[in-house]
Amino acid sequence: MADLNHAANEGKPLALSVRGLNFSFDGQLPLFHGLDFDIKQGEFVSILAASGIGKTTLFRLLSGLIAPQSGTIAIGEAAHSAAEAAAKRKIGYMPQKDSLMPWRTVLDNAALGLELAGTAKREARRQVMELLPSLGLEGTESKYPHELSGGMRQRVSFLRSLLGGGELFLLDEPFSALDAMTRVGMQEWLLQVWEQHRKTILFITHDVDEAILLSDRVLVAAESPIAKLSELKINLERPRSYEAALDHTFLELKRHLLEMLGRTAASRVGGSV
Amino acid sequence: MKRKVSASIPVIVFVLLLAVIWEVGTSVFDVPHYIIPKLSDVFVSMWDNRALLGKHWLVTLWEALLGLGISIVIGTLAAIWIDRSTLARKTIYPLIVGSQTIPIIVLSPIMVMWFGYEIWSKITVVILFTFFSIAVNTADGFRSADPDIGALMKTMGASKRDLLLKWKLPSALPGFFTGLKMAAAFSVGGATLGEWLGGENGLGVYTKRASNMLRADAVFSGVLLLSAMGILLFLAALWLEKAVLAYRRT
What we know:
In chain A, about 40% of the residues lie in helices and about 20% in strands. Chain A is an alpha/beta fold. In chain A, the strands form two sheets. Chain A has a six-stranded mixed β-sheet with strand order 5-6-7-3-8-9, with helices on both faces. In chain A, helix 9 (about 210-215) packs across helix 10. Chain A is globular, with a radius of gyration of 19 Å. Chain B folds into two domains: about 1-30; about 45-250, MetI-like (MetI-like fold). Chain B has eleven helices and no strands. The interface between A and B is medium-sized, with 29 and 20 residues. Chain B: One of its GO terms (cellular component) is plasma membrane. Chain B: Keywords: Cell membrane, Membrane, Transmembrane, Transmembrane helix, Transport. Chain B: InterPro entries: MetI-like (IPR000515), MetI-like_sf (IPR035906). Chain B: It is found in: Cell membrane.
């Protein structure tokens, strides 16, 4: 079953292709040095990295908010640059904080992307209303963000990204601010939603369990500057639930990932001494 | 609504208490009527001159509103400019803040020299009194806009216009209303001062003439009406704020 999923992704065109990416902030050490990686359409890929290594910067590059010093970012079949893809609304960016507008209801927050794309208000609202139940947000449409729990706000934020972008979804540690119980609930929720929509997702996290539970592949960034990402395929059956975390295979994968992180971390400590 | 009424009971009781102290105190201590008239005499004077006072009240109100309206427009435009240009933030913003050290009262006669004894000198003084709080508070409101929301909108292909209308302006509204409430209260003082410096109509003119004639009861009736106007304008701004920022109450 798991292999079938991967086989299904094998022949698919690329949703994202990064080649020779270089970036550093003015006067600071480089964050990325000649980085290459690809994501296929319909894949759920996580990037696992320690905090402060440049994960959020990578997302800002991929969503066109900042430009790389050199290298190419090609998004979708038409291989748009990140800035083009943003302008053409091919990217669904879900930031770490929910960043909901406090003056807008759930309905109008979720409709933001459609509204910016020029969709008529009525039609945008209809599309939001249609999706609310499947995201567990039924009945919240006229509530304001401050009336919702952290988990619910992240759901609205996800729905906004879902309706705002087309080909590639960038999720930047969306559950990191939630408490442990809520986070598990949200991970299972995301698995369900992803099963329904099968969008291409690039998910950034520093949580090993989260990366394994959600992804088809995990890309590990252990060194700074990030010059390459080591890959681990997650051959767990889908649909998954948190039960999978108790599985023997899961623990093997976790051991493997911790080694990938740990070995390089150890070498980094050794190198810097 | 019920809760709002019960919340204002303490202040109503307190004001009534002060009124009683005024009325009884002036009699008990036999204060001369040209120093502090009895409160009841003030109301009698107000009633006797109601037609004249009503006319002057409307003139002053009109000056305050017109000046306030112009301040809202140029104050908001200045705030947008300060927000958009780093140069303006570094030059105009400190200048506006610094301009508050200028005693406007001293500057006001120049407004009369520039704009004459007609309504425009009064409007100008009102603008000098109110522009600052609207411009500065709105500029601070713009600066408080969450940059993450702006970044997110850019990834959704938002235009500059989208960013201004759907992100910057709504974020600045709470600051704008803080400025507006202060400006509403200041505007009456500005209009009155403008009238004091020269003019034919308005409560400023009325109170000045009354004070020249040592008619303290007429002065106080004018003052009470001016203060009522300030409170009314403030409450109107407060009501507008609550209506526009309804999301904060839920």
